[in-house]
Structures are given as structure tokens and as C-alpha cells.
Design brief:
Layout lengths: L2 H34 L3 H24 L3 H18 L7 H18 L62 H60 L5 H4 L4 H53 L1 E3 L1 H4 L2 H12 L3 E6 L4 E3 H22 L3 H6 L6 E10 L3 E8 L6 H11 L4 H6 L2 H5 L22 H11 L3 E7 L3 E9 L4 E9 L2 E6 L3 E8 L3 E4 L2 E6 L2 E7 H4 L14 E9 L2 E7 L1 E9 L13 E6 L5 E5 L1 H11 L14 E5 L3 H13 L3 E5 L2 H10 L4 E4 L8 H10 L8 E5 L4 H10 L3 E4 L5 H11 L1
Parallel strand pairs: 2-4, 13-15, 19-20, 19-21, 21-22, 22-23
Antiparallel strand pairs: 1-3, 4-5, 5-7, 6-7, 8-9, 8-16, 10-14, 11-12, 12-13, 14-15, 17-18
Length: about 750
């Protein structure tokens, strides 16, 4: 294939990927709806719609020689053709197989065939490797149509590393508007050229002035010396000389011309200044309109993001043994593509939270008079012209404030007295704290207490807010208020250690000046009273490690102070000077500086200076280190001890190595019986155990630990190949603190769980 053909293939494949994703999303959404639909008429409508999507995708794949995609689509057509003629009946197994086939289609369609030198039809590309060994036999649903199982079903969450499509479709009306405004800039360009010509005329006039002045400058200096000599009584015509009439005439002529030239330049400059003001206002309007339309052109509907979630809810419900419907409203509302990209992970966390923590098991719902099938609702609605609200709610069990308060007390986030004095809404807000969870067990789906913390952090990073509302037994609602675009924001320009920085105004609660006598020291920490509250005080110079002050501070003067708020916390930040607040456009630091601590990006001020825009989340973390108290030395702290019970020598050695490399003291046992004996003779901080072991399995070991008064509070982590819902529920029943499936096991996963428990 020559370079020209390769370039054409690359363009065609890029176009195909966008089209294929739309067909795949439509088929996936259609299957979820088909599974929920009970009326025959609606079922046939959905079957026909999915059939057409598969047929269209097959044609597109054929056009770019992607035979694997074409083959899968052909199989899908065969299945839906049978469904249309009712030669094949719907069943849970059939739905699983169809979802898997569509997943395989998505995987094959997303392969970057453009990097391959041969045509797509000549290339053999393996499908993603399964995490568990699939059956070697083809799956045959009712009706005898074979459906190849190329991979194991991945159901817990969509691939969180997969970004939203890197292309957007723009309506012709939006493009027409952008084109008209771009055409209007032609007149601005012509006007700008005219202003340049006018300024050149002023410059030419000044050049002529300098030329004329150079001619008379010697005569003027001679006259000056003559006048100075006469004023001191010196009369030495030989040395000073006199200015003759011709020279004097030249000076007078220049002065007359100079006056006219200055008047002309004054008029020119006044005229140009006035016209530049008009030009600026016109350019400001055009630039603002063009920017707004460009923003609208880059906006995409929320349905692009929400299309992931019907199947996510289906799969999570199947894993958890629950039933729930997902209702989406306002999916056609548009927002900046970057907003949707940033909110993908938080939305996944919220949906997972609704299924795992909110919706009850069917028999529990039936016992309380609820429908056996729960409801999860996602509603998108505009708020003012520049905000959008995302509401995720469920009709589940609601938040148990007693359990949440107890979890907060155990983590040391609040005291028991604080919890008793809190109203229910304040207790519910604790759910956003990192590490706090009411889940009885940690699994790969939930229990680590990180999901809701990520939701709030992401929302606040984008200048939004996140709140949670709940009623016990009636459900939970999460409300996210977000900006529609991320292009510009207002920032406060401050100076610290002779350098300028920008702080996003959205995080600045107050700006004030305080005296040195208002700073108090409490437990070796500087604090200041603001509105009756004692806030920790730090200096921006210290937080950013800019070095000591160049000269001793003037303790008679006032200190410039900003009260920052982030994540429910407040901080008093001292700077050398608060200059102003203004609209700023944030630019990234580039791939080479993708993550610089305390810095979110940079902006260019009106004077042309490049100034860092500070990262508020990082500032709060850095401030903790600045004002931390150095503990009194009382000897070195002993490492935490862990007992590992595992009958496989390979797995036992691996677990021991991972834990010891993290600083834990580790002892091993070959089965549950030996582990129980070790617990009777030695004290441990945590147990990591396999489930399937000789003599005593991990479930029985955990039950024995919980039944022993001395060991009942000892954390237990089960690491096992058993991944069914029934096995997880048994782990909860016997009292395990965490349940890690070996198929999703990795080193950081284990260490995160252990670190959280001890």
C-alpha cells in the first residue's frame, strides 16, 4: 500500500470509528430497553431498531475492509432476524450473549488499524485477552444459532480509561454562525491595517521633526551659550561669538514649523486614540461572540456520557443480585466536552453507589412494601445561562445516619459529641469524606470510601458544588451544580515573595486585612478569628516553599489575608499583596509538565506576564504539611504485623513479599487451622486469608475470629478466586472486612485495603 492509499485508509478508519461508536451505543441501549420492555409491540420496535443498527454497522465495516466487525454484525443480524420472525425467544442467557457480542464489536472497531501497513482485511488482530478462561465451545442460544464467545464478560464497570470520542458532530447552523463571525473579522483586519498606516504617518512626522531639529540644533546651542555668557557679565566676542541674523531666522522658522507639527500630531493621536477605542469595543464584541459560538460548537449532549449507564446498571444489578431500572431525563442538554470528560468517573461512582448502597435486595423491598425492582433516575437540567445541574437519585434504603456517624468517629473525622450535636443533613455530608464508608465489606466495587470523595473533588475542581440529600427508607439524591464551560474564570491576582500568582475566585470566600496582634498560636499552630471561627493560618510563601522573607516584616502594618474554602474546609492564607481580580484564560502546562504540585496551569495578564494559576486542592494538602506539629520522640514506632493464611506456596510468597516491601511485619500459615493457632499465641494487627484451604477454610477462620472475644475486632481480608455473589455475601455474613477477587488483584489494590483497615 502506497503512502496515498495509507493516508486515505487512515481518514476512512477515523470516520468509521465515530460512526461505529454511535451504532454500538444505540445497539447497547436498545438491548437494555428490550430486556425491560414487556409489551410485544414495543419489543418488536426495539428489535427492528437494533437490527437496522447492526445492518448499518456491517455496511460501514465492509467499506473499510474490517471483516471481523462485519462478521460479528452478520451474526447479530441473524439473531435479530430470528427474533423478528419469533423463531427465537428472548432469555437472560441470550441477552448476556448479545451484550458480549456487541462488546466484542466495540473492541474490534476501536483497534487502530491505521497503524498497520496491510489493508484491514489482511490483518489478524486478536481480541482482548479474558481475565478468566472462557469456554472453548461456541455458545448456542435457543434456536441453534452459534454465537462465538471470544472474551469473558466484563460487567463491573465500563473501561474507565476510555475517553469520550475525540471528535464531535457540529450542526450546519453552528458552523454558519462561526463562518459569519469569522468573515466579520475581515473588516477588523482591514481596519487594523489602516490604524497601522496612521501610526506610520505619525512616526514619519516625528522623523521629519528630528531631521529639522538636527539642522538647527547647533545654532540653538550657540545661542544658548551666548545668552549664558551675557547673563554672567562675560563679554568675549572672540570666544563666544554672536548669533547672526541668518542663524536666528533658521531657529524662528523651525519653531514656527515645530508648533504646527506638534498640533498636527496631537490631532492625529487624538483621532487615532478615539478610533482605537471604537475598534476595541467592536473587537471585544466580535471576540466574545466568536468565543461563545466556538464554545457552543464544542459542546456535546449529555447523552454522549449517559449512554454508558444503562448497561452499567444492568451489569451491576446482576452482580449484586438486585433489580433496578435507570431513567434518564435531559440527555439532550449540551455542555463543554471537557466537562463531560471530567465527570465520567464521578458519574460512574454515583451510579455504582446507587446500586451497591442504595437499592435494596428484591425480597427486602417487597418486605417494606416497595416494588421489587428499584428505580435510579439521572436528571440533567439547566440552571441560569452558565450552569447545569446533574441530579442522581434512587428510591432505595437511604443513608443510615447512625452508621455514618459511627464510621466518622472510627476514622477520627468527628468526635462523638460532634455527631450528637449535628443535624441529620450535616451527618449525611460526612459521606463525602475520603475513606469513610458504611459498607460492611470492601470489594472491588465499593467499600473503600473513595467514590463520593472523588465526586466532590471533581465537582469543586471545575468550580461546581456537590451535595447529598437522603431520607431513611425513601432513597438518596446527589446534586451536582457545574459550569457549562471551562474556558475562562475569574481569578484573584496576588503577590508573594516578589512573584505573582492567580487564585480562582470561586474558592475565595473573603478578602480582608488583619493586624499582627490578631494572630494567635494554638498548639504550635497559628490561627486567626474570622466571623467567630478560629481558622488555621499559613503564608503562601511557605506553602509554595519560596524561601524566607528578604527583610523582617513590619509588625506595625496590616497583613493581606484570603479565606479559602475547599472540600468543606477553610484556610486563612497570608500574601504580601492582593492586586485585583480579573477574568483569566487558563492554559495547561503541556505534556512535559503534566503534573506540577500546587499549580493548575498558567495565564497571561494584560501586561503580558505569564503567571501561575494555583491548584486549590494541592494548596490545602501542602498547607497541612506546613502547619503540621512535629511529634515528640518516644522511640521508633513498631511496624504493623500481618498474618497471611494461604495454602499455595506461590501465592503465600507473593503476598508476604508485597506486604513486607510496604513495611509490614509478616508471618505466614499454610491453612486456617494453623492461622488460628498463631492468633492464639501472638498478637497481629490484620489477617489476610485465602478461602479455599485444607483443614479450615477462610470463611470458617473468619467466623472463629469473630466468635473469639479477644479477636473479634481484628480486621480480616479475604483474597480468593471465588467471585460469585453468593461467596461475597457469605464473606459479609461471617464478618470479613474486605473481599478481594484474585482475578482483579493487584499490589496497589491489596495495600490500599490493608492501609485503610490498619
Amino acid at each position: 500500500m502506497d503512502a496515498k492509499d495509507q493516508e486515505l485508509l487512515t481518514r476512512l478508519l477515523a470516520t468509521f470509528k465515530v460512526e461505529a461508536q454511535e451504532h454500538i451505543d444505540a445497539m447497547s441501549t436498545g438491548l437494555v430497553e428490550l430486556e425491560k420492555t414487556s409489551t410485544t409491540e414495543r419489543q418488536m420496535e426495539v428489535i427492528e431498531a437494533v437490527f437496522r443498527e447492526a445492518h448499518s454497522l456491517k455496511g460501514a465495516a465492509r467499506a473499510v475492509n474490517l471483516t471481523k466487525v462485519e462478521t460479528i454484525c452478520q451474526s447479530l443480524e441473524s439473531v435479530f432476524s430470528k427474533l423478528k420472525t419469533r423463531a427465537l425467544t428472548l432469555s437472560p442467557e441470550l441477552f448476556d450473549s448479545l451484550h458480549e457480542m456487541i462488546s466484542n464489536t466495540a473492541g474490534e472497531a476501536s483497534v487502530d488499524h491505521s497503524r498497520l501497513s496491510k489493508p484491514a482485511s489482511e490483518v489478524s488482530v486478536p481480541l482482548p485477552l479474558p481475565t478468566t478462561q472462557p469456554s472453548a465451545l461456541p455458545l448456542r442460544p435457543p434456536g441453534g444459532i452459534p454465537l462465538a464467545r471470544a472474551t469473558a464478560v466484563q460487567t463491573s464497570v465500563p473501561d474507565e480509561r476510555q475517553a469520550l470520542p475525540d471528535t464531535v458532530r457540529v450542526s450546519s447552523s453552528k458552523l454558519d454562525s462561526l463562518l459569519r463571525q469569522a468573515e466579520e473579522l475581515i473588516s477588523t483586519k482591514i481596519t487594523g491595517a489602516h490604524r497601522v498606516a496612521q501610526m506610520k504617518e505619525v512616526a514619519a512626522t516625528l522623523a521629519r521633526w528630528e531631521k529639522e531639529w538636527s539642522k538647527v540644533r547647533p545654532h540653538a546651542r550657540a545661542q544658548q551659550r551666548f545668552v549664558e555668557a551675557g547673563s554672567t557679565g562675560i563679554r568675549n566676542a572672540g570666544s563666544i561669538g554672536q548669533v547672526n541674523a541668518r542663524e536666528m531666522d533658521s531657529i524662528l522658522t523651525f519653531l514656527e514649523w515645530n508648533e504646527k507639527a506638534l498640533q498636527s500630531m496631537r490631532k492625529q493621536i487624538a483621532s487615532i486614540t478615539s478610533e482605537l477605542g471604537i475598534d476595541y469595543r467592536s473587537l471585544e464584541r466580535k471576540a466574545s461572540d466568536l468565543l461563545e459560538d466556538a464554545k457552543r460548537a464544542s459542546m456535546v449532549p449529555f447523552s454522549v456520557l449517559l449512554g454508558l449507564f444503562p448497561k452499567l446498571v444492568r451489569d451491576l444489578c446482576r452482580d449484586c443480585g438486585k433489580d433496578a431500572d435507570l431513567t434518564i431525563e435531559g440527555g439532550d442538554i449540551e455542555a463543554d466536552r471537557r466537562i463531560l470528560e471530567e465527570m465520567k468517573d464521578p458519574m460512574i461512582h454515583l451510579i455504582r453507589n446507587c446500586v451497591d448502597h442504595g437499592i435494596e435486595m428484591p425480597h427486602e423491598r417487597a418486605r417494606t412494601g416497595k416494588p421489587r425492582r428499584g428505580t435510579i433516575t439521572v436528571t440533567i437540567s439547566p440552571k441560569r445561562s452558565d450552569k447545569v445541574e446533574i441530579v442522581v437519585s434512587d428510591d432505595g434504603a437511604g443513608v443510615n445516619t447512625r452508621k455514618l456517624g459511627e464510621a466518622g468517629i472510627r476514622l477520627g473525622l468527628v468526635s462523638r459529641e460532634d455527631v450528637e450535636n449535628m443535624d441529620p443533613q450535616e451527618v449525611i455530608s460526612l459521606a463525602f469524606q475520603s475513606g469513610l464508608s458504611t459498607s460492611p465489606i470492601i470489594t472491588e466495587v465499593s467499600g473503600r470510601g473513595l467514590g463520593l470523595a472523588i465526586v466532590r473533588e471533581k465537582a469543586e475542581r471545575m468550580g461546581g458544588t456537590a451535595i447529598v440529600e437522603s431520607r431513611l427508607g425513601a432513597g438518596t439524591t446527589f446534586r451536582l451544580l457545574l459550569p457549562l464551560t471551562l474556558a475562562t474564570f475569574r481569578g484573584v491576582v496576588v503577590r508573594a515573595h516578589e512573584r505573582l500568582f492567580v487564585l480562582p475566585t470561586m474558592y475565595v470566600q473573603r478578602v480582608l486585612r488583619i493586624g499582627w496582634d490578631e494572630i494567635k498560636t494554638v498548639e504550635n499552630r497559628e490561627t486567626v478569628q474570622v466571623r467567630g471561627r478560629a481558622l488555621s493560618l499559613v503564608r503562601l510563601r511557605d506553602v509554595l516553599e519560596l524561601g524566607a522573607a528578604g527583610s523582617p516584616p513590619d509588625r506595625k502594618g496590616k497583613l493581606a489575608l484570603l479565606v479559602l474554602v475547599w472540600g468543606g474546609q477553610e484556610l486563612a492564607l497570608v500574601v504580601d499583596e492582593i492586586l485585583n481580580d480579573q477574568e483569566v484564560l487558563v492554559k495547561g502546562l503541556g505534556k512535559q509538565l503534566r503534573r506540577v504540585r500546587n499549580v493548575a496551569g498558567a495565564t497571561i495578564l494584560g501586561n503580558g506576564k505569564v503567571v501561575p494559576v494555583l491548584n486549590i486542592a494541592d494548596l490545602f494538602l501542602s498547607a497541612v504539611n506546613v502547619r503540621a506539629i512535629t511529634p515528640t520522640a518516644k522511640g521508633e514506632e513498631q511496624p504493623k504485623s500481618v498474618l497471611v493464611a494461604e495454602d499455595s506456596i506461590t501465592a503465600r510468597t507473593l503476598l508476604k513479599s508485597i506486604l513486607e516491601s510496604a513495611g509490614y511485619r509478616v508471618k505466614t500459615a499454610v491453612d486456617g487451622a494453623e492461622a488460628l493457632a498463631e492468633l492464639g499465641s501472638e498478637k497481629f494487627d490484620l489477617v489476610v486469608s485465602d478461602v479455599e484451604m485444607p483443614r479450615m477454610n477462610g470463611f470458617d477462620l473468619t467466623a472463629k475470629i469473630r466468635g473469639d472475644r479477644k479477636l473479634s475486632e481484628l480486621p480480616v481480608v479475604l483474597v480468593t478466586a471465588l467471585e460469585s455473589r453468593q461467596d461475597r455475601e457469605r464473606g459479609i455474613d461471617v464478618g470479613a472486612n474486605a473481599y478481594i477477587v484474585k482475578s482483579s488483584f493487584d499490589q496497589s489494590n491489596l495495600l490500599d485495603v490493608v492501609g485503610q483497615l490498619i
